[in-house]
Amino acid sequence: MKSSLPGELVRTVSLLLEDLGTPLALGVYLRIRHGCWDEVSEVTPDPRNYLEHQALKYAADAAACGFLRKLQGLPTTHDRRANAIRKWYEGERDCFKTNFRLEPYQRNSLFPEERVPTISDFILKIRNIVRELIGNRPSDLPEGKFGPGATCTDRGRYTTVPDKIASDPSLTRDALWCVVEWRHTAWARSFSERHGELIEVPGNRFATVPKTSKTDRSIALEPSINVFYQLAFGTQLRERLRLRARWDLNRAQDIHRQVACESSLTREFATLDLSNASDTVASSLVKLLLPHQWFIVLDSLRSKATQIDDRWVVLEKFSSMGNGFTFELETVIFAAISMAVCREAGHPGVLGRDVFVFGDDIIVPTGVAPGLKSVLSFFGFTLNEDKSFFLDEPFRESCGGDFFHGKPVRPYFLKDLPNEPQDYFALANGINRLAENVDPSGFGVVRRAWFSVLDNVPSALRSCRGPQALGDIVIHDTPDRWTWRWRSGIRYLLVVKPGRRRKVNAHAFQPAVTLASALYGIGSSHPKGWAWHATGGFIPRNGVSGYKRGWVPFS
After folding, report:
1. I need a labelling partner for 330 at 20 to 30 A (CA). Which of 154, 276, 534, 554 fits?
2. Would you call 395 helix, strand, or coil by DSSP?
């Protein structure tokens, strides 16, 4: 068998596909044997083609097709970056059409005679709902926030908070008004002490991150001061939704998955997903629906051009992924549109009761879905037909939860080639979780593949076993296989702990930078992935490599 994947991985996948045993799984197996990697990345089951009692069959087919679909090392012929760029330009073309279509409905339109009265009335209802959700205007400029990733001027490894504070900050011309308040921050004081220089840039920088083996996901790297305040206003939008609509985005994913699970049985709600949603939020739509003061602030902070390679493109979209408020803004817009359609159809249209929105994941009463699809299309959005379910099929999908007639059937996606023991722990545990979907009698179907993974784990680490609650620092197994000991009346389990830590020495930065970083909350367990090392330095995001055995308390 010829393959450019590691032989041990091919063996594991082959064993899994053989034991799943469905015609579709065996078809994937034969494609792997013959090196048809493009076909491996494209084959996928459609839950609409399965009967209500075939949940296990669908789960097995989904597991077979999904296992390698997102693997970045899959040797396909797809140019993932080129595919992402092509889709990005398609989004811009869609936004151009939307901007042209919505122009007559703007407040100061030059073509008001082209308005359709019924559409104008419906848009007004959506505007009023947006005011219900977030109020007429934002609060005064809130305290800025640092994100975990790169900016258009902070790249590569140099994306920790100290790196960002120590570099010259960047911003767009429209965001210059922020400097008045920004100069009072610890960041600005550090900047002043080292006599830095503000960098004015035309906009953000195009980049991609892994998505599937066929295409990357396009994102934008924003200017550092812009994103500092974008994140702040994103947090404010999130807080307004929580206080005014009682919709807590921090808990919404669990609610979505629960509703999706129940609706796969009752068909009460439809789960809708949009294609390329963040790249098709047209600038005219945001101007049309948001209260004027909200629009002015968000519009001044967004980037109005994107650099793709050496070319600058003036944007038709309002914002993209990478902008600090895009997710919350999407939620507000899609929630308001969905609530308006529900109310027109005679439903209460209450967020968190009969409308559920998390970014571009939308759940509405099943009977409302066709009408909502048409309204979304008018506003420039395209329903992802493959991932939207609003007919009588016993399947619903939302926020990473796939359910077939009440049973979880989400496949395991291997995203990176395993290398270190922790990677094989994660792979073994992912295969273990598949057993719960495809084999109600126990562990039998995936047993050979699971043992095949463990063959790659050093023998000294195979005894690091424990419960799912500990995540991938243990191999998930039954309690009789755990290795534990008592100390001072506390039970400790043997686990694999992170090993070498790549530390950025604090002495590499000026004292003002270190002080400013501390004021922005860089602690031992910072939620964004930075940490302060006890010996005096910063551990950057993904700054840990290697492994070692250790003990953790577990009651």
Report:
1. 154
2. strand
